## 1
Amino acid sequence: MSSLTELSRSLNGARVLVTGGASGMGRATARVFASEGARVAVTDRDGDGAGQVAMEIRDAGFQAQSWTLDVSDAAAIEAVTAEVAEAFGGLDILINNAGVSGFTAISSLADDYEATWHTSLSILLTAQQRLVRAALPHLRGSHHPRIVNIASTEALGATAENSAYAAAKAGVTGLTRALAVELGKEGITVNCICPGPIDTDMTARIADEHKAIFARRRTALRRYGAPEEVAHMTVSLCLPAASYLTGAVIPVDGGLMARNA
Ligand code: NAD
């Protein structure tokens, strides 16, 4: 019998860049990486918020630094990614997480719809490919290079008046598969998580009562998820041992997509 290969589950010393790290799933992801021994670059267009998250992580005894990064700014993506790689001596993991929601009906005023479309595509989709392109030269120097793109269950099913968001998130799943195929020969894995309904600032406007009704009717687990529950899956996709998983689109949704009735 051949002996089994030992695959590492350690992220100790891994160098990670998280976008949209000031809040919600980005904040939770930064924290989980850091608690596993990674060095985390917490980036966000809200630079103060990113700074607070990095401080919270350092106060807990782990390693993090913050950068202001608006992912709709192409030049800033290049500059900040280079700064992070320089500060950390390289980069192993990119988490494309930053996002905004923007409900606008297709029959809205043309300018309103065009504005939502432009913002959604720019922040949710275009930024992800730009971050990958900026990170690639550094990821190529890593022993376990990993990319995780955050999409949404809106990429798999859809809600009315959310077409710009749904189109952008479906784009993220296509981008993920295409890059997985293109970068696979270099050992760079590219995977995608589709969160379902998660309690973060993005869903804070929805009344608790409506959240509870929705979750009971639609999810198998009958509740909203916590950002940490998504963060742990994101981090799992980045373990050195997660070396044969690429191009996957994984719902972390309490069974929303699995449930028919
Ligand atoms: P959140 O509002 O708590 O956090 C989003 C973060 O992204 C914020 O810190 C915000 O400042 C940052 N951000 C927004 N625009 C940015 C930009 N242009 N540049 C840099 N940072 C920017 O929301 P969240 O729920 O944690 O969202 C994280 C990701 O998960 C998003 O991509 C979102 O679309 C996706 N998602 C959320 C849910 C949900 O139910 N909360 C479900 C599916 C997918």
Note: Residues 19-20, 22-26, 44-46, 49, 69-72, 97-100, 123, 150, 152, 195, 197-198, 200-203, 227 surround nicotinamide-adenine-dinucleotide (CB under 6 Å).
## 2
Amino acid sequence: MRSPETARMRETHRRGDLVVIANRLPVHRASPESPWETSPGGLVSALMPILRENKGVWIGWAGSSETDCKTFEHDGLYNVPIYLSNEEVRDYYEGFSNSTLWPLYHDACQTPQYERRWWAPYVSINQRFAEYAANEAAPNGHVLIQDYHLQLVPGMLRELRPDVRIGFFLHIPFPPVELFAQLPWRRRLLEGMLGADVVGFQTRHGAQNFVRLVNRYTSHRGSGQAVNVNGRRVLAKEYPISIDFDRIESLANDPKIIEHAKKIRSDLGENRTIMLGVDRLDYTKGIDQRLRAVNEIFHKGNYTVDDLVLVQVSVPSRESVDEYIEVRDRIEKLVGHINGEFGTVGAVPVHYLRRSLPIEELVAYYLAADVMLVTPFRDGMNLVAKEYVASRKTETGVLVLSEFTGSAVELDRAVLVNPHDIDGMAATIETAIGMPRQEQTRRMRSLRQRVRKRTVYTWASDFTHALDAEQPRPSSATMQLPIGTNPPTS
Ligand code: F6P
């Protein structure tokens, strides 16, 4: 039930006081006849309370099979679907977003493609999102733009609606000058982002790279966290995203989930050390290198299939992009190779699950796993690492974490690895397997404190407060945070 205070807030807020724009809507459905369901994920759960309190609107693509693009209300939120034709999906989403920007921003761990024919669709789809947002935003409202698909929207929206406050948040890494400089459209993308009042990044490095690039490739000047855009101040700062710690912890306390974890353990063998990997099936995640490191461990002979097992959960993703098909083939060959070489009748070293699992099941796996392997070549943050930590209420278990993830900045008590170094990774995983319980607890306790302290709600609150602080307006125009979401104290 809503408290009277909450009800009052809703009366004083107009639809469109807060607009979120993201490539995807926060809802999905199995077919156009099925009911809408809220999509799982940190961003959606972080923004939902604020959106509900502010009569929020979410603008996004509803998916290829959706052609009926009427606004609808679901779970207290107005959803405004954007239609994309098959050609637009190919050029704007699979092409420019996921074959140019995605590999480039992830340190070019796959060669980025600079196809001129993808640029115009990227511009026109960004314009479409900006126009929808301009229509939906209330006077002096707030618009939060998400991620690399929509980097031009802040500038386009500012042209259309100079009255609104604009926040842009990049969920993936923002690359250093040498890499970004390759982009034929570098200045346009930077100018686009500068349309925002606050440009948020996962790490301080990302924010610093942005200010350096602005100085080098635009006529605007920045220093520290601020850029001066014709007298208007743009804040460029890190806001590391996180998870709903309490929710994950309460799932980890759920007797049914604990029972499920016990069953996983006994199915895999009580005496074996269980290693776990959970990733989107993406070449940035380093799943193939991880498998090579596991292969190396078995080769060295300190452990056999009776001692050790890896469960690798790989969630299918972007399956029409060639590089994703190739990485899946590589991974599946490696799994076959390792199981063929080291498996016995009745026991395999790698269990490979290519599917998406509900969070309840994932938490059961987190509870069962002695060693969590999170080894991307590059990752904006990596919330799986934080979810594992939140699940480990017994303060045992070892997180092996790539030093190239955004989460390694906060989770520096994890066992950090360089995923490009197969021998080093194999040796580090062996150290993790043999880590004494006392040492596990020392590390896990500190990791849990870190994750508990800065949740996804802290992220949303810090980011939206920064937006209000940047351009003070009459008090009626400040965003209403839900009860329990405190302003930042520093
Ligand atoms: O990490 C970036 C991101 O775009 C996420 O926002 C999203 O959950 C994930 O990649 C998968 O993206 P897609 O929408 O391409 O399936």
Note: Residues 23-24, 41, 147, 171-172, 317-318, 380 surround 6-O-phosphono-beta-D-fructofuranose (CB under 6 Å).
